Amino acid sequence: MREIAAVFLSTVRMNFRDRRSLIFMILFPIVLTLILGTALSSVSGSSDTAEKLDSRAALINQDHGAMAGRMEKFFRSPEIRKIVHTKTYRSLSTAKADLKKQKLDAIIVINKGFTQAVENGSSKKLDFITSGDMESSLIKNITQSYLQRINAYRAAAAFAPQPAAPLLADHALSINGKIPRSSDYYAVTMLIMIILYASAYGLNVVREMNLSPIGYRIRSLPVRQINYLIGKTLGQLATVFLQIIVLVTFFKFIYHANFGSNLPFIFLVCFLLGFIIILLSIALALLFSYKMADTILDLAIPVATFLAGGYVKLSILDTNPIAVALNSWLPNAVAQNLVFQNIYGGTGQTAAGGVLKLTLIALAILLLTIAALRRNNHADLSK
Amino acid sequence: MIIEVNDLIKRYKDFLAIDHLNLTIGDGELFGLLGPNGAGKTTLVNAILGLTAVDHGTINVFGEALSTSERAIKKQIGLVPQDIAVYPELTAQENVTLFGKLFGLRGEALRKGVADALEFTGLTDIRNKKPSQFSGGMKRRLNIACAIVHKPRLIIMDEPTVGIDPQSRNYILESVKKLNDMHCTVIYISHYMEEVASICTRIAIVDKGRIIAKGTQEELGRLIEDDQVVSVGVTAPDYSIIEKLKRLPAVKDATVDGHTIRIVLSERKLNAVLDTFLEEDLTITKIETNTPTLEDVFLTLTGRALREGAQ
């Protein structure tokens, strides 16, 4: 235990003296959030982007029932009209032509039988046709939030113990009527992304142990290699966690980004993600090589961030079954959705379910890392 | 005995790094391991420290097999690696303290161990500075301080003077002798013949994974005591003369170093050598005869110069 504590403390001390890493891990996400937040704000010339986006939707009501009427009324309400300009179309083909000409961002088709489906509690879905841009994603979120309200009424009416099936197949960013400003959105996604880049700390553990003169010296000491690695890994984790606290504090209290009121939950999610990425990078570096693991992670992190909608929220990520399947198990996507749900509420995975999923992933990676370490322990110090 | 190595074999695929090596090192010795790069010196150290699995043979350290009491044995050994193995982000004192803790020191023993190690290596005044602010010699001294903080019975120094100025080299060599005077057994590994010759009480010459000679400097010198080393200065050395010289029965070896041709003779017969120079019409500028050095011993035994490396 003393060995672990000595290595742990010295690792944290060294990490906080390494200015280059600190700049990357703390300043980089802050600057990137400012850039992305500002860039997105410039679309509408305001900092409060989401509320001013000039999104245009076609509404085609083929149902004409009471529930469909209420939905039409919802989209014509003054609050919603500030965000989405909805125009009623009779013909789907005309609406599709306008979508192609980019006169529209999305088409919402209320299919015949929608009212009856809602009243019966069946999951008759709306058709949602989009151009795939940022505005269409926003319209989709608003539509979803309205449907969630209907679901809630329906569930309450039926005394259902759990929410009824959603009417719109969209489980991605669920904001339940509250729309994040671009700065809020990127504060979260950049936080998640920078935790992924903590892989560098994990890789550093293996590089030091297997490729540096210090690793050679450590092996000559009366120290169990596993204890050294545990101390080192815990030190890296603590560093990342302290960086997360610094980042969240900056975003919340200086940048005034919305991180909700349950910060301990957000820290738990971030810690689990940090644990996963550091152990994963250690396992990859042990199983392949430091260079190979570095290359894999350099490629995988931007892809995983993109798939989770970290750079831009594309609606295709919510509709493409492959992207949906990947996002449901990608640790960063799971963590990101958990944070968003914690701040804005919404359906999809429950908080406990999401945390359980992250814990399961963390345990699987831990087992993989232990296996890789055992292999490394038996490896010869060959030339 | 501090170390007993019996019939050790270590292979890296088809490369035989250690070839049936036997070695004993007694308590309090300052033992030199001399050999060119790639001779197997570091592999032998790795085997002694249990850092590499061996294919055959046994190693006992402090009378015990490493496999049975590895931690207890390692607590009494200090390794000074060939490369600087300290943390650049920690100060000298923090580095020595961390390694002291990893050797199991606590409390007053740790504090005293750190202070003594820094004092011994002359780093006390700059203990709060980071290695990045150090000269090459200071870094080498810190490398040593980290290995002696726990006052080990055995110190293994692997090329501790590589790449430093003569003043720092002398400081380190003096420190090695002081450590030995403090009843610490030292294994000093180098390919610098003059270093090994100046400080070691006993020397083993390693080549191609084998110990080709061992003993005190005098004992090694006696291996070629009948030999004579002649240095002949010429204005324009002709490399073809080397082959002709090597064909002479009395010549064991001949090499060119700038304008000097160095010849090892097994018999003190210079006539044939000088005739060869005259036949080649070379202008002789000087002739010197020398007592054989360790370098000559190595050259004679292996046919290669120490610094030719593993080629």
Overview of the molecule:
The complex is a heterodimer of chains A (about 375) and B (about 300). Chain A has about 375 residues and is mainly alpha-helical. Chain A has helices at about 1-15, 20-45, 50, 65-75, 80, 90-100, 115-120, 135-155, 180-195, 200-210, 215-220, 225-255, 265-285, 290-305, 315-320, 320-330, 330-345, 350-380; strands at about 55-60, 85-90, 105-110, 125-130. Chain A folds into two domains: about 1-40 and about 180-380; about 50-155, abc type-2 transporter like domain (abc type-2 transporter like fold, 3-Layer(aba) Sandwich). Chain A has 18 helices and four strands. Mean pLDDT of chain A is about 75; it is low at about 40-50 and about 155-175. In chain B, helix 3 (about 90-100) crosses helix 4 (about 105-120). Chain B has helices at about 40-50, 70-75, 90-100, 105-120, 135-150, 165-180, 195-200, 215-220, 240-245, 270-280, 295-300; strands at about 5-10, 15-25, 30-35, 55-60, 65, 75-80, 155-160, 185-190, 200-205, 210-215, 230-235, 250-255, 260-265, 285-290. In chain B, the strands form three sheets. In chain B, strands 6-7-8-3-9-10 form a six-stranded mixed β-sheet, sandwiched between helices. Chain B is of the alpha/beta class. The model of chain B has no long low-confidence stretch (mean pLDDT about 85). The two termini of chain B are about 35 Å apart. The radius of gyration of chain B is 22 Å and the shape is elongated. The interface of A and B includes residues 13 and 220 of A.
